[in-house]
Amino acid sequence: MENLNYSNHNKCSDFCCTKVENLSVTIGTNKILEDINLHFHCGELTSIIGPNGAGKSTLLKALLGEIKHTGKLTYVGTSSKGVTTPIIGYVPQYLNFDLSTPASVLDLFIACNSKAPVWLYSSKKYRNKVSESLSRVKAEYLIDRKLGALSGGELQRVLLALALDPMPNILLLDEPVSGIDQNGLELFYDILMDVKSKYDLSIILVSHDLDLVAKYADKVVLLKGTVLCSGTPKEVFTNKTTSKIFGLSWYDEDDSKNKGGKK
């Protein structure tokens, strides 16, 4: 049952609501998702949780238009123009590349934002712009670092900076901090909160880090082929269905806030 309730925003970006209506995905004879109905609003971080194989990554791919689906996706703007097409940023779980590559972070940005080979471009033309993009994720010092020398947390922040260039209306993140140490986790989420506050975009995050979801998310969706429950972290983590799937009995709203939760 879809029960996300949203208050009106005094400040709103170009796209105030992403509506997912009756979305289903079937691959071969296997139905991965069925009758997904959700609303995502700007200025909010919605976390998608669920067991392995629940269809979380499939939902993101459907939103990206990478896989076929039935149902309807509608992006509603704040102006009278009505339905329009948003800019969508995406951060994958990891990036596969040759660790021995001599390419730097700057080279990666140039390669992702140009049609010609990297060596045909002057790095001076892009350096200031790339440095500004990296500063959003507290990583400008990495601009000349070789990709193979980046830690897991540093690489994910670089990928986040890429996803924010240009600044999207909707940011999708597919388990972006998997395998990162605790300090890296906290830093990544703190950066997300800062970006959400400054740029008022919709953030949709797939995560298995339930403690951090409880601490930072505005809304949570429990997915297992379909939406089992949704709402605030308190509503979802105290729901009997969530407890049955994850064996949870740990959620305490006051304790979550004391951990430095909602910004």
From TrEMBL:
PROSITE patterns: ABC_TRANSPORTER_1 (PS00211), ABC_TRANSPORTER_2 (PS50893). The keyword Transport applies. GO terms for molecular function: ATP binding. It holds the Pfam family ABC_tran. Residues 18-249 form the ABC transporter domain. Keywords: ATP-binding, Nucleotide-binding, Transport. This is Metal ABC transporter ATP-binding protein. It comes from Clostridium hominis. The lineage of its organism: Bacteria, Bacillati, Bacillota, Clostridia, Eubacteriales.
